[in-house]
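Notes from the 1:1 (GR / supervisor)

We went over the backlog. Supervisor wanted to see one worked example end to end before approving the batch request, so GR pasted a single chain during the call. The sequence is below; no edits were made to it. Supervisor asked that the structure be written out right there so they could see what the output format looks like.
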Amino acid sequence: MTRRLTFTAAAAVLALAALQGRAVADGTPAAPTAPATWQSRGTAISGAATTADAPAMRPATTYTDTIAVGQTRFYGVTLDATSSAYVSAFALPPAGTRVTYGDGIEMKLQSADGSDCDSRDIHFGDENDPRPIGSAVTRLIGVGTSCQTANQYTLEVHRTSAGTSDPGRWPLELRFVSEPGLKAGSAAPHAPVTGTDTPSPTPLTTGTPRPAQGGTGFDTAAALKTGIWKDRVLPGETRFYKVPVDWGQQATVFADFSSAQVKDTSQYISGGVRLTAYSPVREFVDDSDHGYQGTPTSLHEQLAPVSYANRASDDDQVSRVRYAGWYYFAVTVHPDVAKAVGGPVPVTLRVDVTGSAQAAPAYAADARPAGIGVDAHDVSSANGTAASSSGSSGTSALRFLAFASLGAGTVLLLSLAVWYATARRRAGRAGQPVDAVPGPYQQGPGPSGW
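Structure output shown during the call:
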């Protein structure tokens, strides 16, 4: 019985591994053969054609909509006079969609009297690279003098497109978050001192590389702490990772794109690989890109040290790093890279979070619903696994299961062994022959075995 039990459990593990894929020899999970894409998830909302009819968005809520070429959509947000607000919008052109230089979305946050609080223009900088693009517009309390009152505000999203681009509608994912103000009488921390001659960052080189499974969007981003992580990204994919960064800390991320199986040496894809950084409220911070033709190249992003007072900085790359939380890093491989190489591109992420964590500002209310703040559990649980998301495509989960099948098999064997030993003891106490204990797939006592 025990030998058959072990054999059956082992067979189940092998079947799981066959279904989900297998881990490759270097410890990186096997990649799927088709690019995975971000599928918008959230509460459906229909943007209005005028500000008068703009539907209301609630804080800490994600919404989905679509937008046509040349269309402008309006959404309403109600703001008080003490909280800073962030409203993000991301366009998700379907895989294979024709996009060109200048295509994109233009965002604007306006007050009831028509004053512009903030604006962002997010356009594609190259051809035929339909990756997720977007950012957040903000209303900051205590920074500037406009848009400081409690009132009804409006998010405006406009889609730009060249005449040769795909005319189909783009899915949109939108999110509104509210950052509470500080307690009355409390002073904001001082901004960190930053020099004008910041030395080039040094990549982390110590530590054993571990596998990571990047998600397809913010909700499924793989959590990474300080260390070296390995993944594979197919041409046409954007993979998301998130790093917990506390108050006073600084994050540096290198993305090393390794050599791949070259099938056409004449192909050199300008902007073939890209690394993009976003803040905890999905606000674009910075990005970098480089050409790729199957030979190694590297990109990096180094964030400013996290400080509440960064919001007053004139440097956008500093002012957008104004709170502790999960900072997101997206790795993109251009679809045309498939002309130069076969299969996925190996990527090594070198994550380095430095500095001692400092006390948080004295917020008047809990800032966690806004995605602000991290704790020791966030750091300890950052193991490279893509987060699950209700209704997600499941691709990231499959990638993880493929790599974890061996561990799952060990757990299965142990669980079945415990069940069998317990069943034998219970049968002995009941006066039954121990070999008459029914298996889990039998209706009652029968021949020993399954």
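Supervisor's comment: Helices lie at 2-20, 316-319, 376-380, 395-429.
Batch request approved.
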